[in-house]
Design goal:
This protein has 311 residues and is of the alpha/beta class. Helices cover 51% and strands 12% of the residues. The protein binds adenosine monophosphate, FE2/S2 (inorganic) cluster and zinc ion (ZN) (2 copies).
Length: 311
């Protein structure tokens, strides 16, 4: 029988890549300390920061919000209602319930009012929904953080998310994406600082934390995520990890330590300028959100210009 390394009681959790056995109570302590250490290690934020936690209703972002709150950060939530049927309705309710539980404010951005819902945008965009949805979410996270006076945006990306993206970027040697892959993106040119404090914790570890601390989270995946390639990369990484525990963590940390610094000194910095329509930072003339907005307005015009079928 495995025993908790802290109190010698019966362990309920074993973390193979740390060779660590813990009881539930000490697991919660270990998890929260690890988040605090990650914040310190990368210099992500200070107690004086005003943190906006982007919450999706899933285990990662709600766990992150709870940990930051318990660690004493001034952390409020931002939920972007993407209008994806029951999935969005349910996740919004869970975020609201959670904000009441911890007594922190939840800001809600309603995409149907700001732009249009993801299923509607999907009808006029041939790309997978997740790719334009990602840029829409990033746009509103940044916009609302600035509008509401927050100094940092925190997202719930975990080690599995980060290594899946890393693997995909390495396989295509996408140096520009690799250079931007970091758990801390400093405030710059109209972008608020962005941090990923769960980047050294696996999906399983976050799920365990959420279950042990009774967080009510949405278990379903977004219906558009079904064929996402990131799921394949996660499966491949999981197989390697199973055979050789610790690979994921090493892959990610060694990339940050050995490879990324060399990349950032060798690549041309991307020049950003204000979008000529909305003024938000972008690499081109018009930002991706305004391009979607333009496509939507063309479609609406086409619909209103159709002849009236009524006699
Ligand atoms: P995903 O891109 O769905 O893997 O989510 C990555 C992170 O983005 C989550 O951990 C959240 O921090 C944030 N996020 C995802 N969906 C939403 C949403 N609807 N509203 C606010 N934040 C979100
Ligand atoms: Fe954006 Fe699924 S959450 S498409
Ligand atoms: Zn213990
Ligand atoms: Zn714009």
């Amino acid at each position: 029988m495995r025993r908790c390394v802290k109190c010698k009681e019966k362990a309920s959790i074993y973390l193979p890549h740390h060779r660590l056995s813990l009881c539930s109570q000490h697991y919660v302590e270990w998890f929260e300390e690890r988040v605090q250490r990650t914040i310190k290690q990368f210099g992500m934020m200070e107690k004086r920061d005003r943190v906006l936690v982007a919450v999706s209703g899933g285990k990662d972002s709600l766990s992150l919000w709870q940990v930051l709150h318990r660690l004493g950060y001034e952390a409020d939530g931002l939920y972007i209602d993407l209008g994806i049927g029951d999935y969005s309705a349910k996740s919004k309710e869970l975020c609201k319930k959670f904000s009441e539980r911890i007594g922190r404010k939840l800001h809600i951005v309603d995409l149907s009012q700001e732009l249009s819902t993801i299923p509607q945008i999907k009808q006029l965009d041939s790309r997978p929904a997740c790719s334009f949805c990602g840029s829409i979410k990033r746009y509103y996270m940044n916009l609302y953080a600035k509008k509401l006076g927050y100094t940092v945006v925190a997202t719930g990306h975990n080690l599995d998310d980060e290594t899946a993206v890393l693997l995909s970027n390495v396989l295509s040697w996408n140096l520009q994406y690799l250079e931007r892959q970091t758990p801390l993106l400093e405030e710059k040119d109209g972008f608020v600082r962005k941090v990923k404090p769960l980047c050294l914790l696996t999906e399983r570890e976050t799920a365990l934390y959420a279950v042990v601390t009774n967080i009510d989270y949405i278990e379903e995946e977004c219906p558009f995520a079904e064929n996402a390639t990131s799921i394949d990369y996660k499966k491949i990484m999981a197989q390697i990890e199973e055979k050789s525990p610790g690979t994921k963590l090493r892959f990610y940390l060694e990339f940050l330590r050995k490879v990324r610094p060399a990349l950032s000194s060798g690549t041309q910095p991307v020049t950003l300028k204000p979008c000529s329509v909305c003024g938000e930072p972008t690499v081109g003339e018009i930002c991706s959100l305004c391009r979607i907005r333009r496509k939507l307005s063309v479609k609406t015009q086409n619909i209103t210009e159709l002849p009236d079928p009524s006699p």
